[in-house]
């Protein structure tokens, strides 16, 4: 599945930041790239980037461990989300993404897809389905009326920071999802 020029097959899902372990790897690559772009081969000058990256990695690893412990009782729990970009999040915390409400951005679910999702909610006795902070919840609300499940919001963490820190922005967003 794809939208706006990117493919959502699991091999190519671009939303890797939704897995905190992948985000840690991303931070290391970014720190190295910034150091090289600014200081070139002067590796001694890269220290600030490397030090900050290690601090951020430690903060994120501690949070990731807490979140994994919090979600451990839900291992294998099944989710229906607004967007299939939550695959990395689901795998990181041993959850199962059954279906995405909107498989392609901007394309409302068809009547057939709504019936399929409604059947999945009933079959798996799901107490909640998830929309996205910046997405429409019309389809989810229709499914909710049909099944009685709740509708809650998740964030894809695609907003830029408002002067916050790692723990107030990225970690806070993941915590909200959890």
Q: Percent range for helical residues? A: 40-55%
Q: Report the uncertain regions.
A: 1-10
Q: How would you characterize the largest beta sheet?
A: 2 strands, antiparallel
Radius of gyration: 19 Å
| Annotation field: number of helices | 6
Distance between the termini: 25 Å
Instruction: Characterize the overall form.
Output: elongated
Strand order of the largest sheet: 1-2
Q: Tell me the number of strands.
A: 6
Sequence of secondary-structure elements: EEHHEHEHEHEH
What integer is the average pLDDT?
Answer: 86
- Please state the structural category: alpha/beta
DSSP strand content: 15-25%
**Oligomer category:** single chain
List the helices and strands and how they pair.
Blueprint lengths: L1 E2 L2 E2 L12 H20 L7 H25 L6 E6 L3 H6 L3 E7 L8 H13 L4 E5 L5 H10 L2 E5 L15 H8 L1
Parallel strand pairs: 3-4, 5-6
Antiparallel strand pairs: 1-2
Helix pairs in contact: 1-2, 4-5
What does this structure look like?
The chain is of the alpha/beta class and 178 residues long. 46% of the residues lie in helices and 15% in strands. It has helices at 20-39, 47-71, 87-92, 111-123, 138-147, 170-177, and strands at residues 2-3, 6-7, 78-83, 96-102, 128-132, 150-154. The strands form three sheets. A two-stranded antiparallel sheet has the order 1-2. The chain has a two-stranded parallel sheet with strand order 3-4. Strands 5-6 form a two-stranded parallel ribbon. A hairpin with a 2-residue loop joins strand 1 and strand 2 (6-7). The longest helix has 25 residues, at 47-71. It is elongated and about 60 Å long. It starts with a strand and ends with a helix. Mean pLDDT is 86; it is low at 1-10.
């Amino acid at each position: 599945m794809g939208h706006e020029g990117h493919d959502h097959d699991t091999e190519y899902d671009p939303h890797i930041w939704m897995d905190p372990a992948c985000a840690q790897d991303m931070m290391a690559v970014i720190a190295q790239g910034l150091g090289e772009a600014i200081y070139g081969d002067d590796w001694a000058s890269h220290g600030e980037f490397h030090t900050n990256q290690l601090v951020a990695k430690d903060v994120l690893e501690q949070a990731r461990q807490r979140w994994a412990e919090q979600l451990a009782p839900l291992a294998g729990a099944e989710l229906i989300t607004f967007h299939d970009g939550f695959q990395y999040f689901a795998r990181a915390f041993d959850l199962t993404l059954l279906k995405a409400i909107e498989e392609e951005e901007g394309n409302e679910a068809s009547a057939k897809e709504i019936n399929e999702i409604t059947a999945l909610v009933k079959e798996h006795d799901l107490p909640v389905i998830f929309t996205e902070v910046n997405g429409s919840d019309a389809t989810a609300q229709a499914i909710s009326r049909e099944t009685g499940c709740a509708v809650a919001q998740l964030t894809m963490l695609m907003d830029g920071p408002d002067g916050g820190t790692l723990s107030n922005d990225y970690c806070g967003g993941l915590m909200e999802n959890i």
